[in-house]
Amino acid sequence: MATASTAKAAKRYFEMYVIVQTQYFHGKERRRLLEDGISGRTTRFATPKEARAYIEELERNVYCFVPGEYQRPTYRICRIDHLPQYLAEMVY
User: Fold this and answer.
1) Cβ 84 vs Cβ 54: under 8 Å
2) Residue-by-residue DSSP string for 8-67
3) Residue from 79, 62, 89, 65 nearest 20 by CA
4) Tens digits of per-residue pLDDT, 18-28?
5) pLDDT tens-place string over residues 20-50
6) Full-prediction pTM beyond 0.70?
């Protein structure tokens, strides 16, 4: 049985934010991914402001295109509990 503190931790987890990265490829293909940190885990943020600061840093860095990609990715901040099912399953 879950304790009150476990329930609070779960609620806080789902109120966290992630960054959805959209990559653009020739032929109108788009790929949506969650932004991962260096550890390979999904990068999570407590507030949208923290996520925005991270995006600004990403946009300042050099970006290396993958084969077929024609522009830099775009980024969108999303609460974990508002993610589409296929992306929610990717949160690690």
Assistant:
1) no
2) HHHHHHHT-EEEEEEEEETTS-EEEEEPB-TTSSBPEESSHHHHHHHHHHHHHS--PPPT
3) 79
4) 999 999 999 88
5) 999 999 988 999 999 988 788 889 999 999 9
6) yes
